[in-house]
Amino acid sequence: VTAGHPWRDVALVGVHNTLQARRLEGHDALSITVDAALGALADAGVEAAEVDGVVGPLAGELVAALGLAPCARHPNGLGIPALLEAAALVVSGQCSTVVVATGAAGVYTERRATAPWTRPGNEFVVGFGLFTAAEFALMARRHMLDHGTTDEQLATVAATIRNNGHVNPEAVYFGRGPFTAADVLASRPVAEPFRLLDCAMTSEGGCGLVLTAADRVGDRLHPPVWILGGGDDAYGPAYQRAPAWDLRGHRGIDTPAGLVGRRAARAAFRTAGLGPSDVDVGELYDPFSFEIIRQLEAFGFCGEGEGGPFVMEGHIGPDGRLPVTTDGGTLSFSHAGVNTQMLQRVVRGVEQLRGTCRTGQVPGAEVALCSNGGSGALFCDVLLLGRERP
Amino acid sequence: VTATARHDDELRPQPPGIPVPVPSPIAAPFWDGCRHGELRFQRCEGCGTAVFNPSPVCPACRGRRLAWEASAGRGRLYTWTVVWRPQTPAFRTPYAPAVVDVDEGFRLVTAIVGCRPGDLRAGMALAVSFHPAGDGVVLPYFRPSA
Fold this sequence. Notes:
- By secondary structure, chain A is an alpha/beta fold.
- Chain A contains eleven helices and eleven strands.
- In chain A, the strands form two sheets. A nine-stranded mixed beta sheet of chain A has the order 3-2-4-7-1-8-11-10-9, sandwiched between helices.
- In chain A, strand 10 and strand 11 form a beta hairpin.
- Chain A is globular and about 55 Å long.
- Chain B is mainly beta.
- In chain B, the strands form two sheets. A five-stranded antiparallel beta sheet of chain B has the order 6-5-4-7-8, with helices on one face. Chain B has a three-stranded antiparallel beta sheet with strand order 2-1-3, covered by helices on one side.
- At the A-B interface, helix 4 and strand 5 of A face strand 4, strand 5 and strand 6 of B.
């Protein structure tokens, strides 16, 4: 786009998903994170000895386990912001090759309760039995009241994404469909308007990504994928405050919390010199069916209140204008811990641009938009990836 | 979901045994108020903004002087959900987490009691209803009011 593009000197050269499953016997967080890191390095054709930066919740542990010292380690980032942090380590010259790796296993053992990472302990919500599905339901309800969004529109999102997973041999719920909207509507209620099949599964697994300086891209098994733009938005800490659609800050005249991610998307598109119509595939984060309808509006793929009709017109399906969450997402592919499932939208975006998806490949995809988070959690992150160096 | 849970069940306060809030120091006046049947919130002495959750600073003007006041405990239903798959087995279903616009100009997370799930409507008038939750903590639920 311009010589001054902030991310032109860093490339995504390796991605890897470990085995994903409802339960990975014999694994803990470190062992599956090691699988993720080594898998991504192998995919990139990079020797571990070249790594001088690690990003992820167990970054310090990985430095020791893989013998990488001395090495930068950044343990705090989550999802797309962690990926951008890794890219910043490279473009700022602090590192030349960075691994982002994360994984979760052995944490969800009390199956009569919802998964531990979905149960907030904050004093203002804990006594009222809130959990992730309820928080997102409070936002979905408001959209339905304001715009007439329907249960059937939500169910159509869930069926579309679950069917992407149904045909994907790497998905935890491979072969569990196909689903119609009627199947979703017939599933048992969880937190109205969400039924069981509107909600993410829980699972275990890991994923990893490798970034290198552009002058190290060289000849590899796969062509590099480039960061065209990115951004992140928050309206507060997740699961501590009332998740209200019209919550605003000082700069939110046209962006209430219900449209969280809009500012981030605008920033990403501006950096990229692109707009929503340039996006070939949307690897949108799908904790609940409604969140896709909301993100379509927030990111500008359609107008406010038009997300439901956009879905019903078939635009997010495999043959649509904007195929969405093509591996099955958290509804069907995997939903491990808090970090893996977010970075997996980026992994899939890279696979789409390489053209290597075994199922759901969007022919000739040049630009992918990946997202994380959502309205119920009061944050939303956006990453634009491309096949051409910016 | 219990075998007997149905849509015409009345929404009720949770029985003892649910996870209860651990009050933070800044919110202690709020939880003390609940024990005394009073819904308390902060008001900025600089710009008059009603502030909730309790905060060390006004988000509207960044003023640092906030004074506790008692609400009349009346408000309107902004949004809600009806939960059938509880967070933990300690919660009895159905229950209805909600966001309420309180008349004094603040908003809080609560749960609605005293009606059936099918009776819930956006904008319906509500009044605070305090119920003990165990460990000396009292929770501010809301119920329909005239």
